[in-house]
Amino acid sequence: MRKRLGLLLVVLIGGWFLLPSLQGTLPRIVAMSQTMAAQATHEWETQLPLMGRQDKDTATPVESIVKPRTLKKTYYYHFAGSVPNDLESTFEQAIAVYNETGIVNLVAGDATERQNGLTIFAYRMTMPKKQAAYLELGKGGPEIETVTGFQGYTANHAQAGLNLTYAQSRQVSVAIHEVGHALGLDHSESRHSVMYPIDQGKTHLSAADIKTLRNLYA
């Protein structure tokens, strides 16, 4: 009996010390908003087997700050001064993928405060050595502004960017992922989705991606 109590005490104490570590690690892995490099797939699957080892037939989630059918389908996009010419071409191809759905309409130009706008940018950031297995290839997301009153409006002043530090970022699949975030799509657990957190080289929206996009804008 004493041995069992001793063993139980060891387990409880060990769990007490491990819990803060797990709480600090898992949210960072699950909630990452950036596209990660495909080379991290093995490590990702080791830590989160349900996300990497089986596809789930689930809908592509929606960014929490975006409410369905509150935004107009037209976006005006422009490139920040930091974007090189070859990256502009990469984003133009990504934008074409979304325009081909007929659900949204992304056109070149500068948006007013009342209109949906997309700022495309480039940046450089080197991952710390302790996170070298996970390369941040890009980042993007919506920024919703709602003004109430007689002349009220809701507009998305979104951003999408690629990390020029890593050559893997200069891919259409990564640009599609970040534009998806800007439009309101969140990370998906399905490898078929362009919104899977680890870059899979996907250059076409999945049926689930299109369904969620239609739910947001149709």
From TrEMBL:
Pfam families, alphabetized: Peptidase_M10 (PF00413)
Q: Which residues form a coiled coil?
A: none
Q: Which GO terms describe its molecular function?
A: metalloendopeptidase activity; zinc ion binding
**Tell me, which GO biological process terms does this entry list?**
proteolysis
Q: What is this protein called?
A: Zn-dependent protease
Q: Which organism is it from?
A: Levilactobacillus suantsaiihabitans
Which domain of life does this protein belong to?
Bacteria
* Peptidase M10 metallopeptidase domain location: 170-218
Q: Which UniProt keywords apply?
A: Hydrolase, Metal-binding, Protease, Zinc
InterPro entries from the UniProt entry:
MetalloPept_cat_dom_sf, Pept_M10_metallopeptidase, Pept_M10A
The reply on keyword Zinc is yes
A single GO cellular-component term on record: extracellular matrix
